[in-house]
What does this fold into?
Amino acid sequence: MDTTPRYLAFAPEHLPAILRLTEAEGWPSFATDPARALRALTAPGVVTAVCLIDEHVAGFAQAQGDGALQAHLSLMAVAVPFRRRGIGRHLVQEVLRRTGCPRLDLLAEPGAEPFYRALPHREWTGFRIYPEEG
It folds into this structure.
């Protein structure tokens, strides 16, 4: 068994494990429509990296970028048994590198702030805009 983390680009064979991981995180939108999840993870301008440990998906990160200046970290999750090993930090750095951008913006879910504060950063106020109801 090889427990060395490997970081590589998302491939469709990683999708079932990512669906399980997002479902375990309480993010139902991926698991309810796997075809839509695959489109989201592979859309133009999207970079998705996975961490494999012994051929198991230990975590993944998805970012969207313009390839020049700015990128947005959309999703990042590490499976519970693999946490506290630096995988999240490496995934963030991996998608940042793969976007070709010098910075990465994100919105943190409540409780995740300490993790992101441990990375080199500047903190800004953010908003998530939704379509108007009606």
Q: What stands out?
A: The radius of gyration is 15 Å. The first helix runs from residue 15 to 24.
